[in-house]
């Protein structure tokens, strides 16, 4: 499989935010979101065997692992990698755009799945059938650019009863949407969602790699 980087840092997002985590960042993405902050993962990277990736993960002595990208489910070996890490005793997160079929993953994987808002430019690529493959332990992330994205997200929450199904994350586009505005909208509408910031961008400069 093609890997951009493997590194040990602080988990910046999801319900695991703030915990030490090993990140396995795969190479390649078939989407081009307007706000993407990991374009360096589109084409770089080196070929590694699943065994070599696991060996590198083990060097850090951390039991929380996130497989991310790019889009990790473009790599046919990702389900095997996730399963083998699970069998070795790791808690495994897979962060995916939601465009690929998540049913290929072991049910024990904690899926963190985006649903693309209109402001991403990729709303049409959402694979709505994936919702049927999410468990209460999984998470859905909405990256929100503006009020139009927020209103679209609220309509999706209600249409699919998402607040009852799993953890919901609202993440503002850094430097575009005022944090206080998003917080005010969430509170005003009485939503049962988690407002999240990208902690790594507050700990390190925004363009820093391997954090």
Percent of residues in helices comes to: 10-25%
What is the architecture at the second tier of CATH?
Alpha-Beta Barrel
Calculate Rg over CA atoms: 16 Å
Mean pLDDT across the residues is 95
Main beta-sheet strand count, sense and barrel state: 9 strands, mixed
Low-confidence stretches: none
Strand content: 15-25%
What's the tally of helices?
Answer: 5
What does this entry show, briefly?
The chain is 23% helix and 23% strand.
Please characterize this protein's 3D structure.
The protein is α/β, with parallel strands linked by helices and 211 residues long. The protein has one domain: TIM Barrel. It has helices at residues 50-58, 78-87, 147-160, 179-188, 199-203; strands spanning 2-10, 20-26, 46-47, 64-68, 91-96, 110-114, 139-144, 167-172, 194-195. Strands 3-1-2-4-5-6-7-8-9 form a 9-stranded mixed β-sheet, with helices on one face. Helix 1 packs across helix 2 (78-87). The radius of gyration is 16 Å and the shape is globular. The mean pLDDT is 95.
Protein traits:
alpha/beta; globular; single chain; 211 residues; 5 helices; TIM Barrel
Topology:
Layout: E1 2-10, E2 20-26, E3 46-47, H1 50-58, E4 64-68, H2 78-87, E5 91-96, E6 110-114, E7 139-144, H3 147-160, E8 167-172, H4 179-188, E9 194-195, H5 199-203
Parallel strand pairs: 2-4, 4-5, 5-6, 6-7, 7-8, 8-9
Antiparallel strand pairs: 1-2, 1-3
